[in-house]
Amino acid sequence: MSTANKSIRVAVYPGSFDPVTKGHMDIINRAARQFDHLIVAVLNNTNKNPLFSVEERTHLLRTVTKHIPNVEIDSFQDLLVNYMDYKQAHVIVRGVRSITDFEYELQIASTNHKLNSDVETIFMMTNPKYSYLSSSIVKEISSFHGDVSDLVPAEVDEALKLKYTKQKQQ
Hints:
Helix 4 links the parallel strand 4 (91-96) and strand 5. The chain has a 5-stranded parallel beta sheet, with helices on both faces. Residues 1-5 have low confidence and may be disordered. The N and C termini lie far apart (61 Å). It is built from 6 helices and 5 strands, in the order E-H-E-H-E-H-E-H-E-H-H. It is an alpha/beta fold. It is found in: Cytoplasm.
């Protein structure tokens, strides 16, 4: 089959990534092997009060994914299905850690499919060694100067230390 006729499979992995964890990285690495182009899209959720700004989160993601050639880091502040249209993507990638995650993600996937029937959601089970891991847990441990070096990429560990040191000084 000629490459001119081959459609490019583009997927979007949306999330807050505040901060990106090794669990997120596991999904990014695995999804990047499944699609021609993977967009890791940082949600700018105005209802949340994130530790890191959107710019900081996208910078950290670019740093920790620079070795994956088919990964693009972006951000958005719209309905995900609108962003999918804009990026000409048809697959949403979601990591699932538990039954509770799945129930929530299934509701969101069904809603997205209702809003745009061309959009499909693919669920990837989190590697069991990261099944307990969340950005909230990482932030809580790090805020008390606990060791999160096994939970996040080294660059994120450093960014967390800097962020909490600056907050303490203020």
